[in-house]
Structure formats: structure tokens, C-alpha cells
């Protein structure tokens, strides 16, 4: 374990995990029984070239254990990345809830968070167009509370009974297991075209929210309406929101696809590296609070309908606490793979509602984990074990870890002194909601509007966001081979917005709908990513392209200024090692350019130096690197002769996010400020990039 890890804040969960941390790199090599092994490189054979012997228990054990290393992957959200951290409430929320982690501002509640994609298998890449999971396990003093959310505030369907259908439709097709990590195929869009309730979530999926730049730069949502219950037994409806300090930022689609090949672990690596560098990602927890008497005050929105959000224009999000991730797992399998989130994991003061999606989830998570984690004792796995004491009469089953003492394994008992007792207070109590009605299978009338909020989302987008959404529909539907499915989707889109439907139709070879529908014209000020800029440029990756003869003073000034702001400049040259600077010095190269690609960086800088610029102009890889970064709307900067490389890459004289300084040596302050601001703005989509060949 490195010194940074040793120095970290020790949380209660961390200390609990210490009990099971082992360092197998010490001492003698043994079997699972602790018997020292004499040779682990050669099987026991009858004669030097003879057959292996059955009695070689070390060989058999080693192979058997290897054969059984894999467990079933999650049926959805199989690809994930996790991290430890803590949550701390700003001020007591005791007027709303009795949950003590939300009432005591001095408490730092340990958490384990797992981010994920949904469609792809465990080995799929990080950057498909997909929803991202945002699952938080809080190890509170009153038991584990899991907030198992996504990075989008709504869901595809309204009733959990449709979940197997939507997942079957989006997963790889069953005859050929194609496509991996993508929704751009016939079965998904067939389902969408026949199930109009998907329209709202699907437009989020077609937006840049579905291709986050980083797990650290995406929002999280509890999606369902929850119930908070205070000490007096009064209940309030809430919606949970996580808002990242770094802003909500995305890739562009072409970039996301290329990253899938250049670095399939892009988001996982980004999370890991930021935490190792001490740049701990942070989110604000916010709640929308809806008093019970206002439950029916939102026309077209039933609080129990997971395809709807409550517009923040109507109910603002109140910041209530902070989530910080400050420690990487020690072991991927033991922690990130074996963690089991469950919508059932509730603590006193937090309850569910009758949202039929939430109700189905209450069943599904535990059920799937019984298979995935091999039996009913998975809550005893170190990563799942609560910090709160566990005492009950559950027993036996595969993988039982505890050795229970005594004989009273039932309730009531006198032999065990009646223990464990049902406590008089402090227990989880279901909110005593009044329920009555006939048993029936019927979607509520109040769930009926499938288009209004999709229209609201579309109306609230900036011009470039709208362009990206149209392009995404065109891409996805363009991959759909059956024309009638494309036609049906365009028909549904016409109910969202006539212009949107027409633009998509033109791109996918179907006739634009003739009949103009009425757009309600309403907008929300909270849905566009342009209103979620975040703070600063910390952890932004900046490529500095150099060759022999580079202007050392310019490199030094730019890299120092960026590093001072927490950004990560990397010096890239044609080959690894060092380059000779214009003044005869030597500059270490971080990596060779060909092991990387522009898509792995947030910005590109080309420092001056005549010979360096000349070499880069002659290097097609370098020119492509710059053109591609520019096309992806990234900041591009140059000093001195570096400008000629931008020209050779086909960049215009001036453009948003293009920062240049003519002179050699350390560039002036306004260049540096211009570059930092351009990076902080993330992307410059107000450029005309159609003619750029990259
Ligand atoms: Fe899940 N979901 N889900 N889901 N879900 C699972 O549980 C399910 C839904 C979400 O990092 C599974 O342990 C049903 C909404 C996340 O381990 C499974 C329904 C939201 C994760 C399951 C939904 C989510 C899962 C698969 C419709 C956002 C990954 C493995 C009623 C609020 C958790 C597992 C992790 C995982 C069922 C809908 C989020 C099969 C039946 C809505 C983040 O139980």
C-alpha cells in the first residue's frame, strides 16, 4: 500500500475493511489449507515425461480455483467502476427526516459509489451512448441506505413489469449477440416505436448526457419520488439530485466512438487517476421537497410516474450535503464487482412511494443478487456489510461467514432471554399510508402524457444541443434496417416537435410527417447543460505537441500555468524520451504521440520554435491530432511558429476557443487567461467545423 493510501482519512468502513485486507505477497506460498507448497511450476507426474497424477492436490486446487473465478455479471449495469468516500449533511434535516445521517452535520458517513453503463457486458467499453448508473451505498449508523440512481432524471418505462421487455430490446440481439454497448439497432427502436412512454427518456438518451466526459462530471438522480418521514411521523415527498462540482460535461459522439477503441477504460481510468492524484470528485446532494398537500399540484406530472421529472422551475433543488470520493478500491472484484445495491436498503426516516417502477425494483435487486452472488449471505461480504450491528434469526445458506452461538434461533424465545429484541423506538417503520381500491391491471390516467416533457426538454436545449440530438437520432435510426420502424419513430417524434421529426426524417430516408403538431412552447431553465458549467479546469488533460527545436520558455510557461490550476499538461512528441529545445536544452516527453490520440485530451497546445513547428507540419499524425481536437470543439492554442501547424491542419485564422500568440518565449498573461477560460468553457460548439477533415 502506497504512502498516499496510508495517509488518507480513516473512516469506520475503512477500519472494518482492514479486518479482511490481506497481503498475500508476504510469507511462504501455501495451498488454501495453509500447507506450504514445494513447487508451483511443475505438475506431479509419473516419470519425467509421464502423465499427471490425480493425487497432485496442489495442481487440482490451483486449476479448480481458476475455473471458478468468474461469477455471473449483472444482467444490466455489468460494466462499472467504484470508489470509496463519504457523505456529510450541511445542516440538520430533522424537520423532514429522522435519518440520523441527514440530521447530524458532524457525521461523515462512509459511502461506496459505483458508476456504470447499462447495455454492455462487463468487458465492454466506457463510452457508448447509454444511460449511466450512479449507485451510492451509505453505511449509516442505522444500517445501509442505498440510493441507486442514474445520470438522467427519468426512465424509459412507467411500470416495472415492462423492464424485461425494454432490457431485452436494448441488449445485443439474441441471434447474433450484436451490438455491444449500443442502442442503435432494430430491436431497441422497434420497442421504442411501439411504446410511446419511452419518448421522454429517449430524447435524454439522444442528448449529450448519454456520453459523459467523466463520471466526475455528470449529475445523478434518484429518479423516483421518495418519502422522507420525520420524528413526528410526518411525511414529505422528495426527489434526490447529485450535482458535480466540476460541472456537467460531455464528449461529442464521434469522439466517444473513437475513445471506445483508443481507451476502452476512459471513464474508469479518469476516475481512478483523479482520486490517486488527490483531486477528489465531489457532488452536492440536493432535494426537491414536495409537501403531501401539493402532490397533485403539477399538471401532467404524477409523482409516481418515473418517466416524468418535476421541473426545477416549479420546485427548486435545495442543496443539503456533500459527497466526496477519496479512495480507490483495493481490489476490483472484492469491492466493485461484489457490491450489491438494493432499493430495499432503507433506513428509518426514508421510505418509498407507490411508483410501480420502484415497487418492482424492491423485488428485483435482492432477487438477482441471490444468483449473482451465490446465495443469501451476500450481505456479509465485506463491501456490503453494514457498520450498524446485525442481529436476527437468519441462518445457514451458502457461504455463511458467521459462527452464531447459542440455541435460540427463533422469536419469541425465552432460552436466549428473548433476544434479539424488537426495539421500542428507532426501528424502521413503514409510513402508514392509507391504501384501498380494487385489484386491477391498469395504467393510471395521470400517467398518460408521453410527449409533453420530451417537448419541454427539446424546447430547453441550446442550438448546438439540438443539433447533437438530431444527429444522434439520425445515427441511431440510420442503423435500423427496417424502414417501418424508422417511420414509426419519426411519427412519434412528430408529437414531440414537428421540426425535430422533419429533421430526423430527412436524415434517415423517410418522408417527413406532413401534419404539423402543436408544440406547447414551454421551456425549463434547468435542463440544458449550458447552465451546469462547474468550477475551474482541475484534472483537465492538455496535450502539448512538441518536436526537436521547440521553444522551451513557452512550454515551461504554459505547463506551469496549467498545472497551477490543477490541469494535467502532457508533453507529446513523435517518440518517447526527450526532445532538444531551441536553446539546446533537453525536454522530457510524457508519452509518444502515437500511443495517444486527441480524443483523450480536453485541449491541445502547440508551442513555438521554428524547427519544432516545421517537423509537426510534416507529421500527418500531428496535423490530424490538431484538426480532430478542433472538430470536437476543443480549445486549441499556439505560440510563435506553432501557429503554422494550426494553419497546416486546416484551422481558420480565428474561432471561438482558438487562442494564439505570435511571439516566442513565455506568452503574455492574456494568452494564458484566454487558454484557461477556453478550457473552463469545456467545448466551443459555436464553431463551424463541417469542412474540417478529421
Ligand atoms: Fe436497475 N437493476 N432496475 N434501475 N439499476 C439493476 O440489480 C431493475 C432502474 C440501476 O452498480 C440490477 O444488482 C428493475 C431505474 C443501477 O450494482 C437489477 C427496474 C434506475 C444499477 C435491476 C430497474 C436503475 C441497477 C442488475 C425497473 C435508476 C447498478 C444487477 C423496475 C433510478 C447497480 C443488480 C450497481 C441494477 C432491476 C430500473 C438504476 C436487475 C426491475 C429506474 C444504477 O436488479
TrEMBL record:
E.C. number(s) listed in UniProt: 1.11.1.6
Basic and acidic residues bias spans: 1-22
Cited Pfam families: Catalase, Catalase-rel, Catalase_C
UniProtKB keywords: Heme, Hydrogen peroxide, Iron, Metal-binding, Oxidoreductase, Peroxidase
Stated name of the protein: Catalase
Catalytic activity: 2 H2O2 = O2 + 2 H2O
Active-site positions on this chain: 77, 150
Recorded GO CC terms: cytosol
Similarity comment: Belongs to the catalase family. HPII subfamily.
Keyword Metal-binding: yes
UniProt xrefs under PANTHER family: CATALASE, CATALASE-B
InterPro entries: Catalase, Catalase_AS, Catalase_clade2, Catalase_clade2_helical, Catalase_core, Catalase_haem_BS, Catalase_immune_responsive, Catalase_large_C
Any GO BP annotation: response to oxidative stress
Essential cofactor(s): heme
Disordered, as annotated region: 1-51
Amino acid at each position: 500500500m502506497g504512502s498516499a493510501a496510508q495517509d488518507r482519512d480513516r473512516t469506520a468502513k475503512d477500519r472494518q475493511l482492514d479486518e479482511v485486507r490481506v497481503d498475500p505477497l508476504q510469507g511462504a506460498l501455501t495451498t488454501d489449507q495453509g500447507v506450504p507448497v514445494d513447487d508451483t511450476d511443475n505438475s506431479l507426474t509419473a516419470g519425467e515425461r509421464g502423465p499427471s497424477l490425480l493425487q497432485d492436490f496442489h495442481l487440482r486446487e490451483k486449476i479448480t480455483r481458476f475455473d471458478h473465478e468468474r461469477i455471473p455479471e449483472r444482467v444490466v449495469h455489468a460494466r462499472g467502476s467504484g470508489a470509496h468516500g463519504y457523505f456529510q449533511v450541511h445542516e440538520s434535516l430533522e424537520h423532514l427526516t429522522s435519518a440520523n445521517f441527514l440530521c447530524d452535520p458532524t457525521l461523515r458517513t462512509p459511502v461506496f459509489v459505483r458508476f456504470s453503463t447499462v447495455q454492455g457486458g462487463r468487458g465492454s467499453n466506457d463510452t457508448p451512448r447509454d444511460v449511466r448508473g450512479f449507485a451510492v451505498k451509505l453505511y449509516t449508523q442505522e444500517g445501509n441506505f442505498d440510493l441507486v440512481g442514474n445520470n438522467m432524471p427519468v426512465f424509459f418505462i412507467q411500470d416495472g413489469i415492462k423492464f424485461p421487455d425494454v432490457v431485452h430490446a436494448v441488449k445485443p440481439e439474441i441471434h447474433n449477440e450484436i451490438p455491444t454497448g449500443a442502442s442503435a439497432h432494430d430491436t431497441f427502436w422497434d420497442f421504442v416505436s411501439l411504446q410511446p412512454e419511452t419518448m421522454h427518456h429517449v430524447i435524454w438518451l439522444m442528448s449529450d448526457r448519454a456520453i459523459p466526459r467523466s463520471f466526475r462530471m455528470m449529475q445523478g438522480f434518484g429518479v423516483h419520488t421518495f418519502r422522507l418521514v420525520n420524528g413526528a411521523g410526518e411525511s414529505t415527498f422528495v426527489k434526490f439530485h447529485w450535482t458535480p462540482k466540476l460541472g456537467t460535461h460531455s464528449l461529442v459522439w464521434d469522439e466517444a466512438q473513437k475513445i471506445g477503441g483508443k481507451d476502452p477504460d476512459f471513464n474508469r481510468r479518469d476516475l481512478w487517476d483523479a482520486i490517486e492524484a488527490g483531486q477528489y470528485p465531489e457532488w452536492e446532494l440536493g432535494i426537491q421537497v414536495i409537501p403531501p398537500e401539493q402532490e397533485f399540484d403539477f399538471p401532467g406530472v404524477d409523482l409516481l410516474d418515473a418517466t416524468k421529472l418535476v421541473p426545477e422551475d416549479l420546485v427548486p433543488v435545495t442543496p443539503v450535503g456533500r459527497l466526496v470520493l477519496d479512495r480507490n478500491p483495493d481490489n476490483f472484484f472484492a469491492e466493485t464487482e461484489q457490491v450489491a445495491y438494493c432499493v430495499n436498503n432503507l433506513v428509518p426516516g426514508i421510505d418509498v412511494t407507490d411508483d410501480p417502477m420502484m415497487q418492482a425494483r424492491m423485488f428485483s435487486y435482492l432477487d438477482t443478487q441471490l444468483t449473482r452472488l451465490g446465495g443469501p449471505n451476500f450481505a456479509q461480504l465485506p463491501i456490503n456489510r453494514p457498520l450498524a450491528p446485525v442481529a436476527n434469526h437468519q441462518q445457514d445458506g451458502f457461504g455463511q461467514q458467521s459462527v452464531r452461538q447459542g440455541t435460540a434461533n427463533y422469536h419469541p424465545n425465552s432460552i436466549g432471554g428473548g433476544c434479539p429484541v424488537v426495539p421500542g423506538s428507532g426501528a424502521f417503520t413503514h409510513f402508514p399510508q392509507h391504501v384501498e381500491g380494487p385489484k386491477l391491471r391498469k395504467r393510471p390516467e395521470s400517467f398518460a402524457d408521453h410527449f409533453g416533457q420530451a417537448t419541454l426538454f427539446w424546447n430547453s436545449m441550446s442550438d448546438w444541443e439540438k443539433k447533437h440530438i438530431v444527429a444522434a437520432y439520425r445515427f441511431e435510426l440510420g442503423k435500423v434496417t427496417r424502414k417501418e420502424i424508422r417511420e414509426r419513430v419519426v411519427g412519434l417524434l412528430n408529437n414531440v416537435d414537428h421540426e425535430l421529426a422533419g429533421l430526423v426524417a430527412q436524415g434517415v430516408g423517410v418522408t417527413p410527417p406532413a401534419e404539423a403538431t402543436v408544440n406547447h412552447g414551454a421551456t425549463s431553465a434547468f435542463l440544458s447543460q449550458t447552465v451546469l458549467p462547474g468550477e475551474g479546469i482541475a484534472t483537465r488533460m492538455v496535450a502539448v505537441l512538441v518536436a526537436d527545436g521547440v521553444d522551451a520558455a513557452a512550454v515551461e510557461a504554459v505547463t506551469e500555468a496549467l498545472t497551477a490550476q490543477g490541469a494535467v499538461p502532457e508533453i507529446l512528441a513523435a517518440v518517447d524520451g526527450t526532445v532538444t529545445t531551441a536553446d539546446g536544452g533537453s525536454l522530457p516527453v510524457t508519452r509518444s504521440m502515437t500511443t495517444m490520440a486527441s480524443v483523450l485530451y480536453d485541449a491541445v497546445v502547440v508551442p513555438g520554435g521554428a524547427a519544432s513547428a516545421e517537423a509537426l507540419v510534416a507529421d500527418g499524425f500531428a496535423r490530424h491530432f490538431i484538426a480532430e481536437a478542433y472538430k470536437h470543439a476543443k480549445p486549441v492554442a499556439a505560440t510563435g511558429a506553432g501557429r503554422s501547424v494550426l494553419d497546416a491542419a486546416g484551422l481558420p485564422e480565428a474561432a471561438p476557443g482558438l487562442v494564439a500568440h505570435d511571439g516566442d518565449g513565455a506568452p503574455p498573461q492574456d494568452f494564458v487567461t484566454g487558454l484557461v477560460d477556453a478550457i473552463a468553457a469545456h467545448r466551443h460548439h459555436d464553431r463551424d467545423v463541417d469542412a474540417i477533415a478529421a
